Amino acid sequence: MTLLEQYFDCMRRGDHIALADLFDKDGILHDSSWTLVGDDALHLSGKMAVEMMFHHKFGMNGGPFPISGVKFMEENVAWYFIIYRGRVVPAVAYLSSVTEDGKIDRLNILPM
């Protein structure tokens, strides 16, 4: 499985520990798709921040986020739909850099 496929798998399962393990210790997750439901963009710096935030998000969400319609445009780009607070949000995930040891260095999630 590619890193992006693993990311979606962890999101679908609600596994915050496995999700964080995909990231480098200094990896960045920037998700501005939240702005479509009135929230601020989510900017996390570091594996620990990813683990803590998604532990909280999965808990507050009651489990994993429903994700559907994932279409891989290439190995590092995918379009998909995710549900935040009952609203369907179209988004694109762009894996912009990976470390030498195969961890996520930067993942950008943008609204479509």
User: What's the structural domain tally?
Assistant: 1
- Strands of the biggest beta sheet: in what spatial order? 2-1-6-5-4-3
CATH topology: Nuclear Transport Factor 2, Chain: A
Largest sheet: 6 strands, mixed
Number of helices: 3
Alpha carbon gyration radius: 13 Å
How many strand elements?
6
Strand content: 35-45%
Tell me roughly what share of residues is in helical segments. 25-40%
**Helix/strand order, N-terminal first:** HHEEHEEEE
| Anisotropy-based shape | globular
The gist of it:
The chain has 112 residues and is α+β, with helices and mostly antiparallel strands. It has a single domain, classed as Nuclear Transport Factor 2, Chain: A. Helix content is 29%, strand content 44%.
Defining traits:
about 110 residues; alpha+beta; Nuclear Transport Factor 2, Chain: A; 6-stranded mixed β-sheet; about 30% helix; about 45% strand; globular
Model description:
The protein has 3 helices and 6 strands; from the N terminus they run ααββαββββ. The two termini are 25 Å apart. Helix content is 29%, strand content 44%. It is globular, with a radius of gyration of 13 Å. By secondary structure, it is α+β, with helices and mostly antiparallel strands. The longest helix is centred in the middle third of the chain and has 15 residues, at 47-61. It has a 6-stranded mixed beta sheet with strand order 2-1-6-5-4-3. It has one domain: Nuclear Transport Factor 2, Chain: A.
